[in-house]
Amino acid sequence: MIIRPKTRGFISLTAHPKGCEENVREQMEYAKKHKFQNAPKNVLVIGASTGYGLASRIALAFGGGANSIGVFFERPSDRDKPASAGKYNSVAFEKFASQAGLVAENVNGDAFSSEIKERVIDLVKSKLGKIDCVVYSLASPKRTDPFSGEVFKSVLKPIGATFTGKTVNVDRDEVHEVTIEPATAEEIKATEKVMGGEDWELWMQALHSEKLLARGTKTIAYSYIGPEVTWPIYTNGTIGAAKDDLMRARAAINFLLEDIGGQAIVSINKAVVTQASAAIPVVPLYMSILFKVMKEKGCHEGCIEQMTRLFGEKLYGQSPARSLDEQGRIRMDEFELSKDVQAAVREIWPKISTENLAELSDIAGYKREFLRLFGFGLNSVNYDEDVEI
């Protein structure tokens, strides 16, 4: 069938299999040009199908030569309906990794569940033996507690006060104000249960108890801080509370891994276009301005550039201790939050409107990167030909 993009807000209802494969291939080629030494041998990536998780797996495999198991929850194709982009990404990764002689196993299912943890443990035992790196990059709107069966749903809300601020409708290229009521205590708790560190901790406990973690294992989870303009809806909001819980889990995991000399790290990453970030009010408008500024200054990075630098330079290229800030986090957002970049963004922010959106921001570049998430907009793909879904 011929597949065209069908977007609605922060999601695309379609994905292009050849476009997704080409997107993975381009990231693979970048990683091959940025190889690094001292890479882990066997990697588990939880949340491996899109965004930072996919880029992490690609960087570790093709930049470091790592075998990997990827865990994700993606939709297969159904009659005349294409599969999700993450499904096509993962099939492409497995293909390229196998061609390179690497072990590449995919597990499609609910990573929050005990069943998937047990399936992965069996796979580690049969395919890899031991893991020496665990990447936790899971983003989900809901989570079923594996013990109580209770379903928790995350929300994107401020805490303590109503928030009103600028955002952009990317379908119409319209800048407008959005007002969001503060989260209830129950919503804050639910968001922590979904997006916090509890599941990361459960994964590490399960692997540790089965003695599947090699000595010196590193595990890393991802977070974001951003500038003050995004704080009410992110850092000081429900997602920020969940990310605080990620730091709690980091401390608990570090204690757990003491006997094998392991280390848990949280990396504060740069703002990039992902399905998760596109859903956060204010952030797409901020990113459109940020991308314009960073591209003009020559310091813009996407997911694969960030992850090859993270693993190749910060985590395995030098002593991790020298890469950590005072709170024990790796800072990959140093270019984004540099004084000159943020000064330029702050100058543009109060001026931005629907009328000057194209001039003062890189909304076109933001939309191109968004479409690439689903395999669209790549010059090397013929979108007029029939493809097998």
Brief overview:
This protein is an alpha/beta fold and 389 residues long. The chain contains 13 helices and 13 strands.
Q: How many separate domains make up the residues? A: 1
Oligomer: single chain
- The number of helices is 13
Low-pLDDT stretches: none
Could you estimate the helical fraction of the residues in percent? 40-55%
Taking the sheet with the most strands, its summary is:
7 strands, parallel
Strand order, main sheet: write it out. Answer: 5-4-3-6-11-12-13
Radius of gyration: 20 Å
CATH topology call: Rossmann fold
Number of strands: 13
CATH C-level name: Alpha Beta
The CATH H-level homologous superfamily: NAD(P)-binding Rossmann-like Domain
Distance between the termini: 7 Å
Q: What spatial form do the alpha-carbon principal axes imply?
A: globular
Measured by DSSP, the beta-strand proportion falls in 15-25%
Order of helices and strands: EEHEHEHEHEEEEEHHEHEHHHEHHH
CATH architecture: 3-Layer(aba) Sandwich
The residue-averaged pLDDT reads 94
Main structural class:
alpha/beta
Would you kindly provide a written description of the structure presented here, covering whatever features stand out?
40% of the residues lie in helices and 17% in strands. The longest helix has 19 residues. It starts with 6 loop residues before the first strand and ends in a 17-residue tail after the last helix. It has 389 residues and is α/β, with parallel strands linked by helices. It is built from 13 helices and 13 strands. Helix 1 crosses helix 2 and helix 6 runs parallel beside helix 7. It has a single domain, classed as Rossmann fold (3-Layer(aba) Sandwich), CATH 3.40.50.720.
